[in-house]
Amino acid sequence: MSEETELYFVQLAVGEMQNLAYLIGSHSTRECLLVDPAWSVDGLLDRAEADGMKVVGALATHYHQDHIGGSVFGMDIEGIPRLLERHPVPVHVNAHEGDGTLQVSGASESDIVRHAAGDEISVGRVSVRLLHTPGHTPGSQCFLVEDGVGPGRLVAGDTLFLDSCGRVDLPGANPEDMYRSLNETLKALPDETIVYPGHIYGDPSDTLGAQKQTNPFLRVTSLEQFLSFMGR
Question: What does DSSP assign to residue 232?
Fold first, then answer.
């Protein structure tokens, strides 16, 4: 099998809040990880099965209900419990996000694997680096997916949207952390990195280089300017 076909990467629109979920894995091992299992967990698992892939874990960008399941705005969103009912796999979260994940999703401590910034998870020859990007929540994380062949792919959750960024007016949010996550952690990645957001508010992806040119939250020159954009 050629290296060009190693990466298995699927982006799927789910739910009523324009969420995007992802399947990331290895064609050579036929194993994959499910990013932000919510809304249509059966549909996500059925897609992996239809593609001949075995789900071996879940990655949570952050603990909000529309990304991992739970009750919000009068809706009961299926998520991690349904995933674990069908496939008892580890759920990988940032260490700062673990308690929130447990409280919101109803998962058990034994289901959760807490990670530090920079940890990597490998599936075949595909590497997923966990980038701690607080701001939207204290333990928000993005996933840098690399197969050693093409450009990296950044699954950005609710940290970086195309031409925007995640909200910083919710409980646990911090605009100064968001500034550093965007303009220090993510902006340092190569321009050819492809950004895949946690919600689809237009195009489904873009290069980070293009976002550096068009996204006002990546174009700011100081924390003060960023905070002024946020109305602070």
Answer: -
Q: How far apart are the first and last CA of the chain?
A: 53
pLDDT tens-digit profile of 179-203?
A: 999 999 999 999 999 999 999 999 9
Superfamily for the 3-229 domain: Ribonuclease Z/Hydroxyacylglutathione hydrolase-like (3.60.15.10)
Tell which residue, 21, 20, 25, has the closest CA to residue 9: 25
Is the model's pTM score more than 0.85? yes
Which amino acid, 24?
I
- Whether residue 190 contacts residue 152, with contact meaning beta carbons closer than 8 Å, is answered with yes
b (16+ CB within 10 A) / e for 150-166: ebbbbbbbbbbbbbebb
Q: What is the pLDDT of residues 131-159, one digit of tens each?
A: 999 999 999 999 999 999 989 999 999 99
**Could you give the strand order of the β-sheet that contains 141-146, starting from the edge strand earlier in sequence?**
120-123, 126-132, 141-146, 153-155, 194-196, 206-207
CA distances from 93 to 12, 114, 148, 223 (A): 21, 5, 24, 28
Query: Any idea where the domains of the chain sit in the sequence?
Result: 3-229
